[in-house]
C-alpha cells in the first residue's frame, strides 16, 4: 500500500481501517528489525520539522529518534526558536510557507486545532498531528499497537478508558482518537468519567457510526466499576471537556482555579487504585500515555505493579511514528 505518501495525519479519520492496520503492521516490522539490529534507513537525507507549541517528552524525543533511525533528521522548533513564537514577529502563514520550502514533513503539536488545520492547508508536505486539543492520533496508534502485542486481535477486546484526577487541564485528544480507533478497528471502549467531563460527543457519534460496521462500541459511564468489569485494559487519562478547554490557555497545564475546586471534589473517587483493579479481571493491563500525576490519577502501587504496561506503551510511540513517517514521506514501499 503506497497511497499514504504525501498525506496528512491530522486525526484518525484521515486513515481508512485498512490503512491503520497496514501502518500497525509496518510498526511491528520496524520494531522487530530494530530488535534484531537491522537498520532501515528509509528516509535517508530527509528532514522533519518538529514544531512544539507546548512541552513534550515522549512525542518530541520519539519523533527525533525515529528520524535518526530512519536515516533522516528532525529539527526541534519551539517558541524560542522561531519569530512566530514569543517574539511574535512573524505570522503563522509565512512561517509555514517558509518551512515548507526547506523540509519534507512537519510534526506539529498545536495549542489550537485551527493552527494545525492551517498548517495542513498551507503546506505541500505531510503534516502530522503531534497532539492538539481535539486529537492525539500518534498516541492512539501506539496504544493500539501495545494492546495488540498483549492480546493479539482486538476484535473482542474491552478497553476501560478511565478519567483520573490531576491539577493540569489537558484536552480530551487521546480520548477522542481512541474512540475513533474503537469505531474503526471494532473493539469495545467504555469511557468512565464524571459528569461535565464527557469527551467530544460529535467525535463519539462519528465513532459510533464506524462501530456499527466494525462491531465495536463506545459508551460513556459514570463509574470505574461499570467500566472495568471484564476489561482487558484499563487506560487512565485526565482531561477536561471541550467547553472548559476552550476557555483558553489558563486552563492548559496551569489549571483554572475555579475549575480546580470542582475537580478536587472528585479527587477521592477518580484515582485508579488496587481497589479498582480488584473489580477487573486478574490479567487486566494498566495503561497511561504519560506524563502521569502519580497518586492523583493512578496510585504508585498500580503504576509499579506487573499489570502496568506504561513503558511498553511509551516505547511504541517510537515504532508507530517511524511507520507513520516512512509511509507519509514515501520511504516505505
Ligand atoms: N504522551 C505524550 O504525548 O507525552 P508528551 O506530552 O511527553 O509528548
How would you portray this structure in words?
The protein is α/β, with parallel strands linked by helices and 333 residues long. The protein has helices at residues 17-35, 58-69, 92-102, 113-122, 137-151, 173-185, 201-214, 224-228, 242-245, 257-266, 274-278, 300-303, 310-328, and strands spanning 47-52, 73-77, 105-109, 127-129, 158-163, 188-192, 217-221, 233-237, 285-288. The termini are close together. It folds into 2 domains: 12-135 and 317-328, Rossmann fold (3-Layer(aba) Sandwich); 138-314, Aspartate/ornithine carbamoyltransferase (Rossmann fold, 3-Layer(aba) Sandwich), CATH 3.40.50. The chain binds phosphoric acid mono(formamide)ester (CP). Phosphoric acid mono(formamide)ester binds next to helix 2.
